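Please, structure for the following, as tokens.
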Amino acid sequence: MQNRKRRKEQLNLKRGKKGVCTVEETTKMKYRLARLKRKEILKEKRKPKRTRTGNEDANQENSSKEYGETEKRGDAESNIWNFGKPKFRCEHCNALLWYEKRLRPKVKTKKPAFGMCCKQGKIRLPPRQNPPNYLNNLLNGEGEDSKNFRENIRSYNSMFSFTSTGGVVDKEINKDHGPYVFRMDGQNYHHIGTVLPKEGSKPRWAQLYIYDTENKVQNKIEASRSSNGKTPIIPAIVAGL
């Protein structure tokens, strides 16, 4: 109804059925047409959105079953693909892979070929070398020393480093859900330190190899940040390493 009124007034304004209009009447007519147009826009915005039919609901349910669940975050939608655990091995390098990652995804086969691991045998890595006997026993043994070494393996490893990584660590990235991510902004660098420790400070990093070498085992243990954990560091293991 309002559309018809607006069109009629527009035609009257164009054809001049009312005779010659004054400037004031023309201005009032324009304002009235603008108000009618705004009312139409508001009316369109207030209309309820079209409800989904039963067929559309059924199609949506089938689509969810076939392609995975859909997670909504605000206005954006993202499909979550779940292939389960990798159950197929590459015939060249024995890497575990998903069936959906085969080279020819449109062809169904019981013996799929893969190329994302070793390029079908074109890339060959040298076999891993065996560690020294003492380290191998600590890694794979069943005694108390082996158990202590595996529980504090990061502490034992950091004791023998010459430097420490430095930089601006981005701590905001781990506030959301998901696996832990270590990300640094800008340029990274290494803390080396001076040749001799400052007065009252304990030796760290490369200083452990040239300063107070008679007490190097104890100095390494004290320099470890995780030495105050539940399981203490064993000096004999440090000396053996």
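Residues 63-76 have pLDDT under 50 and may be disordered. The longest helix spans residues 23-46.
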